[in-house]
C-alpha cells in the first residue's frame, strides 16, 4: 500500500483494529450458537459480549504474539484479559484458526467490494452528467488515431458509462463470490463443531455459509474476485488513455482540471500535464498484477497449504486500496474535466471537409456516375484539400463534373453534421434508459 | 492451437468455412432488415439466400484476398460470384467490415462457450458420480501435506464438484458478456445504417444488440470472458494437482486409468505416470496466459485501434480449444480414476493412531486433568509411536495415568472414524441438493 | 502460430522434418561416441549415417506413432526401416527419450535465437540509417504528451537504436542460457551412459553440456529465455506506440509507407491508418504472454514432471515465430517510414514560441529581475499567445519592461533552436560510437 | 511491503531518509561538476557539503511538500534551510526533477541488487555445504512423482546450487542493466546542462552515464531487472516445492527445522508443517507479479509519461524486499533442513527392488533371451512384488528360467546402488569445480 494512493476508508478495513474487531464478532457469535446448542454455558457466551465496545490493544496483542508465535491465540489471550479467564474458557471451542481467518478475509473483501461499489457509483454519476452535458458536442470519431466520421463527446462519455455499468454488475457478482464464511474445522468435516454454528455466525456477519470447505474457503472464489478487479482496472485505463489523448498538445480537446492558483500554469499555459490520468494508467497495471498470483493460489495441496496466505496479505489490501483510490481519482477527473468544444470543431476541420469524402463518393455512384469516375472526381478534389489546403465543399461545388451529378443541396447535405448525430438519442436511451 | 490438444467440434468453430458461413448469415439478415426498411429492394435481399446451402470456396476467397488485400471484400466478391453481381449489389450496404467481424467473433466465442459448458457438464457429472461412489471412503485429510484429520474421498470429489459448479455459473455470465452484436458503422453512430438492422441481425443470430459500440464492440467484455476461462483453468489445475499427489509412489491412493494392454505397465507395475493430469497442469497455464493480453486489449485508442486483433486471432481459438480439450481430458480422468481405498487406510494409519492425539489431549483436559499433565501424558505415548512404531491406542490403554482419567470406552471412542464422517450427508446435501 | 504473422525460416525450425533431422543427428553422434568408448560396434555407428541425406517420411512416422503411442520410438522404428533393423539395433542405447527431446528443444530455441538476432540486426540497421538521416531534423520533445523542449527526430531513432542494441546483448545472453544439451539418463545420473557421449553430442551440435540435469534440462533457463523475448517485445511496442502517435491526424509527423497504388489512399488521403504498428502493439502482447507460463514451468516435481511440455509445445514455436515476424515488420516500417519535417516544425510552433517561456523566465531572473516580476512579465505575454494566438517573441520584443531587462539579441537567442541541438553529436557518439 | 516478510537492510534502502541522502549526494556532486565547468561559483559548490553529515528532517520536508506539492522542491527548500539560502541558490541549476529521481531509483535498485546478491551467496553456500554432506546419501529419483532410478540427495542440492549460480550471473547482468544515471534535462538534450555533469555525478555514485535518455532513463532496463527477479523467484519456488514434497507425511525424507521447545511438536510429532517453504511458494508469486507491469512500463509516450511511476513506487520496494526476505528464509531452511537418510532408503525399497526391473529386463535380453521372454520373466516376478509384497531379487533368484540366463552374481549386480552413483563425483566437479 502506498499512502499517497490510498483513501482512509479502505485503509481502515485492513487495519489490525478492524481485523481484531471482526475476529471478536465471529468468536462471540460462535459462542452464542454453541450456547444455543447446549455445548457451552449460556453465561459464558454472554460474558464474551463484555468486550463489545472495547478497543483492542493492538500493541498488547503483538506482545503476546511475540511469545506464542500465533496470532489467533494471542488475540484470544488478550480477550481473556478483558472478559476474564474463566469467562473466556469456552471461546473458540471446536474451531480452528482458519475458521476465523478465512471468514475474516472474506468479510474484509466484502466490505472492500462495498466501498469499490461506491467508487464505481461516483464514476458512473460523473460520466452520466458529463454525457448529457455534451450529448450534442460534436467531435471527430477516430479509428486508428485517424479522423473517421463525426460523433459526439456525449457518446464518448456514454460508452464509458456503459462499460462502467457492466463493471458494476461484475463487481456485484464478485462480491457474492467472496461473501461466504466457514466454521468447519481442521479439514472441513465439522467433526468438532456443529454446522449450526457456521450458519449462525454467517447469518450475523452477512455471509453465506460455504457449502463445502476444507479448513480453507476455496480459492477459486478469490481468483474470480481479483480477476474482476483486474477488468475494472483495465476500464479505468481505457478512460485514462482517452483523456491523455484529448489533452495532448496537438489535440487539446480536454484538460484535467487545474486550480487557478496552480503555479506555473499561466506562465507556461501550454504545459498542463495529464498527470492524474497517467497515474491512473500506472495504477491500473498495479491492480491487474494481482490477477495472476490470485489464479496461481487456486491449486492448494490437498485440504490446504498456506502458500496463498502471503499472497493475500499483499494483494488483499494493496489491490483494493489502489483500485478504490483509482476510482475516486477517476471520478474527480471526469467531474472536473475541462472540455474544449471549439477545439473539437477545429480538429474536425483540420482537413477542410475531407472526412466527408466517402459520403460524396457514395452519393456520386448513387447518382449514376460510374465507380471509376466517381473515384476520380472525389480524388482530384480531395488532393487539392490535402496538398493545397483548399476547402473540400468549395472545390466540389466548383467542379462542373460534380455539379452535373449532384445539386448544390445534395452536396451541402453531405456536409451536414446532423446526419451523423441523428441516432444519438436512440443510443442514449439504450445506455441510460429512457 | 496444438492438434494433439484439440477436439474437432471446437476446432470447427474457428475454421474459415464457419467464419464465412457466419459472415454470410449476418449479411443476409442485414439485407432482409434493409429491405424491410425499404432501403434496398426485397428481391435483392431474397436473392442473397441463394447461397444458403452453398459451401464457400475458401481457396477462391483467399485468391481474391491476395489481390484486394481485404478479407471482407474478398468474401463479398466471392458471394457475388455465387448469387450474381447484380443481385449482390446491395449486400453490405451501409455497413463497415468491423460490423461483420466483431459480431462474428462474438458468435464464435458464444458457440465456444456453449461447448465449454458441455465440457463442464461432463466434468460435473463425473465428479458427482465418483463423489457418491466414495462418499464414505475414509482417507486422511491433509493440511500442509501433513496428516491432519480423517475425511472421505467423497468429500474431495464433492468440493471439486462445488468448485466446478461455480465455474459453470461464471461461464454463463461470461457467455452473456460476449453474446452481443453490433451493426453500427464506422464510429458507431448508425449514420449510414438504421439501428433496426442491428436489432434484426442480432435477434436472428441469437445475440443482444451492443448498447453502444464504436466500430468495435467494447473489449472489457472479452477481457471478462478470458479472465473467466483463466479461473476455470485454475480449477482444472487444482483437481490435477490433487490427483498427481494421490498417484505419487508413496501415496498411491489413486491412479489414472491404464488400459490393460498398455505396454510396460506389468513389467514395471510401479511406473505408471500421471501424465494426463501433469498435462492438464500445463494446459491450465496455457489457458491462463490469455488473461493478461485480454486485459491489455481493453484500452483502445479513441473509437478503435486494431491492436486487439492479432491478440484475438491467437487467443480466440487457442484458449477455447485448449480449455475444451482440458475439460474433456479431465472428465475422462475423473470418470476412470482407479481408487485404492485400502491404501487410503494404510496411509492414514502410517503413524498408528497418532492423528487422534489431539482428540485424546482434549478428552484428558475435559476429564479434569490439568493442561500440563494432559500434554505430558499424550506426549510420552505419542513418542513411542513416533520413535518405536508402537500403536497409539494400545499404549494409551496400557498407561495407568491415562486410564485413571479415561475409561477404555472413552479411549476407544476417540479412535472412532464415525466421529469425523458424521456430517458427510449434511455436506453432500449442501453441495448436491437433498 | 498464425500464418499471417509468420516467416518461413522460423516456421521451418519447428516443422516435424526439422525435428526428426535433429533427432537423427543426436542419435548418430551418440552412436559415434558409444563406438569410440567401445560400447557398441563401430560398424553399427557408421551404418546410422546412411540416413544422413534422407528426407524422413513424416506420415510414416505418424503412422507408427499411432500404434506405439510414443514419438521417439516411432522415429527409431522408421530409422531402422531406412538403415536396416540389424544395423539400427544399438541406436539410442542407454538413452532416454528426454535426452533427445530436451536437447532438441534447446537446439531449436538456439536456432530461433539466431534468426531473432538477424531480425534485431535488421531493425538496428534501419534505426541507425534513419537516425543519421534525421540527426538534425528538429521536432518538439514531449513529456506527458505535452510540448516540452525541442529535440531531433534523429535522437528519437537513436534512443530506439540504443534500446534495441541492449536487446541484442540480452538476446545473446538468452541464447547462451538455452544452448545446452543433456544425455544423462532417466534421472540424470549417467547410470546407463557415459558422460563422454553427452560431451561429444553437444560438441557436434554446437551446445554446452548441461552441468547437471535430471532427465530434463532445468527450466530456469527457458524461463530466462522467454522473459528476455518479453522484454524485446516491450521495446517493439515502445517504438510502435511512438509511430502511432506520430501518425495520428493531429500530429502527422510521420506515416507508415503507403504504396502509391494502395486503393483509397488518394480519395481519402487523410485516412492512412498505422495498421502495421497497431499490429505490432498486439504482437508484443502475444510475445509477452509467454513469460508467465515459462516462469511457472520452473518448479517441476522432483527430478521432473511433464507439466512444462504442453506449455513449450505452444510457446516454443508461437513466441519465436511471432517475435521474428514482428522484428521484420518493425524493420520494414522503420526503413520506409515517411517523415514530415515540415509538420514537425508546424507542430512545434503551434503555440507560437511558447515552449521557450521557461528560457525567457530564467533569462529575466539572471538579468536581475525579481522572481515575481519575471514571472509576471512572462505570464502576461504568454497569455496573449495562449488566448489570442499572438507570437511570443514579437510580444516580448514589444514589451518595454522585458526589453528593459533583455536586449533584442538576448531575446532572439532564447528562440534559437541550436541551443537545444548543440549536444546531438555528443549523444550520437555515445550511441553509435565515434 | 509486509513487515513480517522484510529485512531491515533492504527496507532501509527504500526509506525517505535514504532517498533524501541520495538526492543530496547527486545535487552536491552536480554542484562540484558545475563549479569545475565554471558555471557556478566554487564556494557555492563547497557550501553544499555542509549538509554532508546532516540527518534530513523528513517531517519538515513533508511539511514543505504539503505546500509546494513537489517533492524535489520541498527537499531543496529544506536543504537551503540547512546550508543557507544564499549558498544554496545554485543547487539543482540546469537540472530537472527527473534527473534526480531517475538516477536515485537506479541507485536504490543497484543497492538492492547488491543485497540480493548477498542473499544468493548465502543460499549458494548453504546448498553447497548440504550437497557435499549428502553427496552419497542415496534416495530414489522420481519422474512424474513416481519412483524411477536411484540418485543422491547431494545431487539434488547440487542441481539447486547450479540453478542458483545461474541466477547469480543473471542478477549481475540485471544489476548492470540498472546501474546507470542521467542528468540530461527536460527531454534529454543537455540543453541546460553540460554532459560533463552527468559524467561526474555518475562516476561518484558508482553508475554509468545513460548513453541516451529523455528526461527518463529508458524502462526496458527496469523491465529486464524485474524479469530477472521473477526468474530467481521461480527458482526459489522450485526448491520450496521439493522440500514440501520431502516433508509430506508419506515421504518424510526431510523436515524444516523445528526448535525443540516449539509447542505441540512432541504431542503431535507427525504434525510438523513445512510452513516456511509454503510461504516461499507464495512469496515467489508476489515477486513474479511485478514482471508484467514492469514490461508494460516500457512503452512510454514520446519522451516520457509518468505512468511508470506509481508502478515503481510499489514494485521497487515491494519486490526487492520480498525477494531479499525470501532468499534469506530459503537459506535458513536449507542450512537447517533435517534430513532422514533412513527414510530415503525405506521409501526407495517400498516396492522391494522393483525399481531395478528395467535393468534386469535389459540384462536378460543382453544374455540372449528373446525380448518377449525377457518381458514375461520380469513381469511374472514383478507382479509377485506388486501384488504380494514379495522381494524382487529373491523371486528372481528363485526363478529357474531367470537363473538359467543370469548368474547369481549378475542378478546381484543389478541391485547394486553403486551402479547409479558412479558418476556423482563427475557431476560435482562440473557443478562446483574440481
TrEMBL record, chains A, B, C, D:
Record domain Adenylosuccinate lyase C-terminal: where: 352-432
Gene3D superfamilies xref list: Fumarase/aspartase (C-terminal domain), Fumarase/aspartase (Central domain), Fumarase/aspartase (N-terminal domain)
InterPro entries: AdenyloSucc_lyase_C, Fumarase/histidase_N, Fumarate_lyase_CS, Fumarate_lyase_fam, Fumarate_lyase_N, L-Aspartase-like, Pur_lyase
Pathway: Purine metabolism; IMP biosynthesis via de novo pathway; 5-amino-1-(5-phospho-D-ribosyl)imidazole-4-carboxamide from 5-amino-1-(5-phospho-D-ribosyl)imidazole-4-carboxylate: step 2/2; Purine metabolism; AMP biosynthesis via de novo pathway; AMP from IMP: step 2/2
Keywords assigned by UniProt, alphabetized: Lyase, Purine biosynthesis
Pfam assignment, any one: Lyase_1
CDD domains reported in the protein's UniProt record: Adenylsuccinate_lyase_1
Catalytic reaction list: (2S)-2-[5-amino-1-(5-phospho-beta-D-ribosyl)imidazole-4-carboxamido]succinate = 5-amino-1-(5-phospho-beta-D-ribosyl)imidazole-4-carboxamide + fumarate; N(6)-(1,2-dicarboxyethyl)-AMP = fumarate + AMP
EC number: 4.3.2.2
Enzyme class: lyase
Source species, domain of life: Bacteria
Molecular function per GO: lyase activity
Family: Belongs to the lyase 1 family. Adenylosuccinate lyase subfamily.
Protein's UniProt name: Adenylosuccinate lyase
Taxonomic source organism: Fuscovulum ytuae
Lineage: Bacteria, Pseudomonadati, Pseudomonadota, Alphaproteobacteria, Rhodobacterales
Amino acid at each position: 500500500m502506498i499512502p499517497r494512493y490510498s483513501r482512509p476508508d479502505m485503509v481502515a478495513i485492513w487495519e489490525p483494529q478492524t481485523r481484531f474487531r471482526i475476529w471478536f464478532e465471529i468468536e462471540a457469535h460462535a459462542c452464542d450458537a454453541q450456547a444455543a446448542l447446549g455445548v457451552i454455558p449460556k453465561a459464558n457466551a454472554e460474558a464474551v459480549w463484555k468486550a463489545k465496545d472495547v478497543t483492542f490493544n493492538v500493541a498488547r496483542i503483538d506482545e503476546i504474539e511475540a511469545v506464542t508465535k500465533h496470532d489467533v491465540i494471542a488475540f484470544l489471550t488478550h480477550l481473556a484479559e478483558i472478559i476474564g479467564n474463566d469467562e473466556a474458557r469456552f471461546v473458540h471451542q471446536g474451531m480452528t484458526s482458519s475458521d476465523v481467518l478465512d471468514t475474516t478475509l472474506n468479510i474484509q473483501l466484502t466490505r472492500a467490494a462495498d466501498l469499490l461499489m461506491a467508487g464505481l457509483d461516483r464514476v458512473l454519476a460523473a460520466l452520466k452528467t458529463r454525457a448529457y452535458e455534451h450529448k450534442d458536442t460534436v467531435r471527430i470519431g477516430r479509428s486508428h488515431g485517424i479522423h473517421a466520421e463525426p460523433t459526439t463527446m456525449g457518446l464518448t462519455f456514454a460508452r464509458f458509462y456503459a462499460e462502467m455499468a457492466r463493471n458494476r454488475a461484475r463487481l456485484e457478482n464478485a462480491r457474492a463470490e467472496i461473501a461466504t464464511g466457514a466454521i468447519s474445522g481442521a479439514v472441513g468435516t465439522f467433526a468438532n463443531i456443529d454446522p449450526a454454528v457456521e450458519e449462525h455466525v454467517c447469518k450475523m456477519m452477512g455471509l453465506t455459509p460455504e457449502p463445502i470447505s476444507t479448513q480453507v474457503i476455496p480459492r477459486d472464489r478469490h481468483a474470480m474476485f481479483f480477476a474482476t478487479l483486474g477488468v475494472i482496472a483495465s476500464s479505468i485505463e481505457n478512460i485514462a488513455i482517452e483523456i491523455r489523448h484529448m489533452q495532448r498538445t496537438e489535440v487539446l480537446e480536454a484538460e484535467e482540471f487545474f486550480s487557478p492558483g496552480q503555479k506555473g500554469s499561466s506562465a507556461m499555459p501550454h504545459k498542463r500535464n495529464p498527470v492524474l490520468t497517467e497515474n491512473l494508467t500506472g495504477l491500473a497495471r498495479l491492480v491487474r498484477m494481482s490477477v495472476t498470483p490470485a489464479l496461481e493460489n487456486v491449486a492448494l495441496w490437498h485440504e490446504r497449504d498456506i502458500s496463498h496466505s502471503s499472497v493475500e496479505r499483499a494483494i488483499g489490501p494493496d489491490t483494493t486500496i489502489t483500485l478504490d483510490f483509482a476510482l475516486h481519482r477517476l471520478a474527480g477527473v471526469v467531474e472536473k474535466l475541462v472540455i474544449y468544444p471549439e477545439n473539437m470543431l477545429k480538429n474536425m476541420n483540420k482537413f477542410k471537409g475531407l472526412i466527408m469524402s466517402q459520403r460524396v463518393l457514395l452519393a456520386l455512384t448513387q447518382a449514376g456516375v460510374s465507380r471509376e469516375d466517381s473515384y476520380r472526381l472525389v480524388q482530384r478534389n480531395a488532393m487539392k484539400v490535402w496538398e493545397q489546403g483548399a476547402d473540400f465543399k468549395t472545390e466540389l461545388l466548383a467542379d462542373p463534373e460534380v455539379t452535373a451529378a449532384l445539386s448544390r443541396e445534395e452536396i451541402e447535405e453531405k456536409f451536414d453534421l446532423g446526419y451523423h448525430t441523428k441516432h444519438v438519442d436512440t443510443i442514449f436511451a439504450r445506455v441510460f434508459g429512457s
